């Protein structure tokens, strides 16, 4: 079994606290007192020159953090929306020189740290001996156990406070194996990969409550049930619910079909789809994968995950992702990739010091790799080539990769032992293109429990990252919030947009090339949807809510999230709690 990480060392340059976005006060910020774990060299094949392992990171350029507008900036009433901000006012957002990430000598060979190689264990990219359905004929040495990254542990804490954290056990190598499907694959038509939608459906300028779907009861012994999965077709909204998946007519709320999917209640669901196919885990220990048709509710195929017994909890804290005709599943003690249309195996994870620790789908398949809690990497992989990496980027020492915001461009969230979100980083071709420091409690970056892609309040287009400022109250009791835009090319701040009436606001989606944001209804606020111009940050009302909407919209629950699709606004829950009799799976406005 592996040992816990050694005592922390020097603080990393990444993740330095700052005051957030918008113009900084003069003078450099004081150095932070964060801590950094020691490092091991990664256990996967060496990246090409330039990806390297981080040398000592240089300090940021002079300047303070970025807080709310400083004196001299336009005040409310002059322009209540966004004002362009001069370049270079985010000292942490400058792309570092590439030299800071060059290797200090030749790259290490695979397994350079002396990780033991067990008899019969395949090298990276090799195909293990396969039995029926492509599973290994013999189990990999070492039993299931902990050894997942800190972001998985954060998920454990957030999902069930009463659960005792698993002790760190053996660690596992994501040894991706080849499949048995050599035929050419159709071109992917991904969804949810980030970026503006081309057009929007007609919508009402005054949204009114349409229908809702009450959640099923949760037994006292279960405490809570997670209900991941929300998908849309041209006429249905499809929701993962307790022990089932249900499609509703978006116009009427009438039930269109129901697909049984009994589970213990914390199984994963892939966010993206492919040709109206979606995928979930289910079963008594989340031990099965099911692919189904969103238009008919018909099951296309179902398969037991490797090593499944039907009763063991081997598949705790799983996550899934779909990119094109590929679905990947990652859990505490392994990972596997399937051809979505046929369930042929494309790769499979084994034991070792490195392992897949998060998947992102959509336009590309992106993988977070965790090497013994010490080194974290991001890879874009080729599913048709046994999951081999097209490129690899290694995160700076003392940081971990906790979320995948977008797969095209590749944008990830970095964190540390002390914070789950410290930086937002854009990667291109295995190199860091830009970095945005999140400061201390300035941004509302919400990381959910349904895998690495379960990120809220952050949007990404081809050239811009949009962050939501965390709501704060001023001395007059008014809410201060806003949307901040940064270039993906260099991390420089473009503008800050704030509601004229000083209300809460959060980024939701894209519509007609604009950012769609929500000012939630409250006891004395009717609420509205606004669009934000990506070039200037200027706000414009998109749709209001009719009187009484506040009785149906409650985003104060951390597990309720807003969605916009086809002219309909939805409030969707991800978790149902025992004893809460008024929770809704879905609330619809049109």
Automatic annotation (TrEMBL):
Residues 1-11, 22-34, 43-63 have a biased composition (Pro residues). Residues 1-146, 175-207 are annotated as: Disordered. The keyword Transmembrane applies. Residues 91-103, 112-137 have a biased composition (Low complexity). Coiled coil: none annotated. Keywords: Membrane, Transmembrane, Transmembrane helix. The keyword Transcription does not apply. It comes from the Bacteria. InterPro entries: Quino_amine_DH_bsu, WD40/YVTN_repeat-like_dom_sf. The chain crosses the membrane at residues 153-174. This is PQQ-like domain-containing protein.
């Amino acid at each position: 079994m592996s040992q816990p990480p050694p005592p922390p060392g020097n603080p990393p340059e990444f993740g330095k606290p700052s005051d957030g976005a918008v113009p900084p006060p003069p003078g450099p910020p004081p150095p932070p007192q964060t801590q950094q774990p020691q490092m091991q060299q990664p256990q996967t094949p060496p990246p090409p020159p330039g990806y390297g392992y981080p040398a000592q990171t240089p300090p940021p350029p002079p300047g303070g953090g970025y807080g709310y507008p400083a004196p001299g900036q336009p005040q409310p009433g002059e322009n209540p929306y966004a004002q362009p901000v001069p370049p270079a006012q985010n000292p942490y957002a400058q792309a570092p020189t590439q030299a800071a990430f060059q290797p200090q000598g030749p790259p290490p060979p695979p397994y350079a740290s002396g990780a033991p190689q067990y008899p019969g264990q395949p090298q990276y990219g090799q195909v293990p001996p396969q039995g029926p359905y492509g599973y290994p004929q013999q189990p990999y040495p070492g039993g299931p156990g902990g050894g997942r990254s800190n972001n998985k542990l954060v998920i454990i804490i957030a999902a069930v406070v009463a659960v005792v954290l698993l002790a760190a056990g053996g660690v596992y190598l994501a040894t991706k194996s080849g499949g048995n499907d050599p035929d050419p694959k159709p071109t992917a038509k991904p969804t949810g990969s980030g970026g503006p939608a081309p057009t929007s459906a007609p919508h009402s300028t005054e949204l009114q409550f349409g229908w809702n779907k009450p959640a099923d009861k949760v037994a006292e012994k279960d405490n809570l049930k997670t209900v991941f999965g929300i998908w849309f077709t041209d006429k249905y909204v499809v929701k993962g619910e307790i022990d089932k998946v249900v499609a509703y007519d978006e116009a009427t709320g009438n039930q269109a079909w129901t697909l049984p999917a009994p589970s213990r209640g914390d199984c994963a669901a892939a966010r993206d789809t492919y040709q109206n196919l979606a995928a979930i885990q289910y079963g008594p220990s989340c031990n099965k994968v099911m692919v189904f048709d969103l238009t008919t509710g018909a099951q296309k195929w179902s398969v037991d995950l490797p090593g499944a017994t039907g009763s063991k909890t081997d598949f705790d804290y799983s996550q899934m992702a779909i990119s094109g005709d590929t679905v990947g599943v990652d859990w505490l003690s392994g990972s596997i990739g399937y051809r979505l249309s046929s369930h042929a195996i494309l790769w499979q994870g084994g034991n070792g010091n490195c392992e897949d620790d998060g998947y992102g789908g959509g336009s590309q398949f992106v993988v977070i790799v965790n090497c013994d809690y010490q080194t974290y990497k991001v890879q874009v992989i080729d599913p048709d080539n046994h999951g081999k990496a097209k490129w690899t980027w290694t995160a700076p020492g003392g940081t971990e990769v906790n979320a995948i915001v977008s797969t095209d461009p590749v944008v990830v969230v970095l964190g540390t032992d002390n914070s789950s979100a410290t930086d937002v980083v854009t990667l291109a071709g295995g190199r860091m293109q830009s970095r945005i420091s999140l400061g201390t409690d300035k941004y509302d970056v919400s990381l959910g429990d349904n895998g690495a892609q379960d990120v809220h309040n952050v949007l990404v287009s081809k050239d811009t990252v949009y962050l939501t400022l965390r709501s704060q109250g001023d001395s007059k009791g008014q809410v201060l919030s806003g949307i901040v835009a940064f270039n993906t090319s260099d991390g420089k701040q473009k503008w800050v947009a704030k509601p004229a009436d000083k209300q809460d606001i959060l980024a939701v989606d894209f519509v007609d090339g604009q950012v769609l944001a929500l000012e939630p209804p409250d006891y004395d606020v009717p609420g509205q949807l606004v669009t934000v111009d990506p070039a200037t940050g200027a706000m414009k009302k998109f749709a209001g809510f009719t009187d009484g909407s506040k009785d149906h919209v409650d985003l104060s629950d951390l597990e309720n999230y807003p969605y916009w699709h086809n002219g309909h606004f939805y409030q969707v829950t991800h978790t149902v709690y025992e004893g809460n009799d008024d929770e809704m799976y879905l609330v619809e406005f049109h």
